[in-house]
Amino acid sequence: MWLFYTSMLMLHCVTDGVWYRAMCLKDESSRDKNVIYLDFGNMAYVEKENIRKMIKDYVETPAAAVMCSLQGK
Predict the structure, then answer these.
(1) With 70 as the cut, is the pLDDT of residue 1 above it?
(2) Beta partners for 21?
(3) How many domains does the chain have?
(4) pTM metric for this prediction
(5) Which H helix or E strand runs over 57?
(6) How far apart are CA 35 and CA 37, in angstroms?
(7) pLDDT at position 2
(8) Which of 12, 41, 44, 67 is most buried, judged by most C-beta within 10 A?
(9) E strands along the chain, which residues?
(10) Domain interval for residue 49
(11) Is residue 29 over pLDDT 70?
């Protein structure tokens, strides 16, 4: 088993059986990890059993999601 850390790049397998690129935002507990999906921008708490280290081929591709916010009254 390997250790999680903040900003770690990983792959997460969701219920559809597809692996998604994600980054660990905070290591909340020994079981759940707070992640942001690099290509969609949404965040979720995920179980560590469904996470794997990201392989080098997927690290080189830039994230498709763009962080932004709206300013207003």
Answers:
(1) no
(2) 11
(3) 1
(4) 0.77
(5) helix 56-59
(6) 7
(7) 61
(8) 12
(9) 9-13, 19-26, 32-37, 43-47, 51-53
(10) 9-59
(11) no
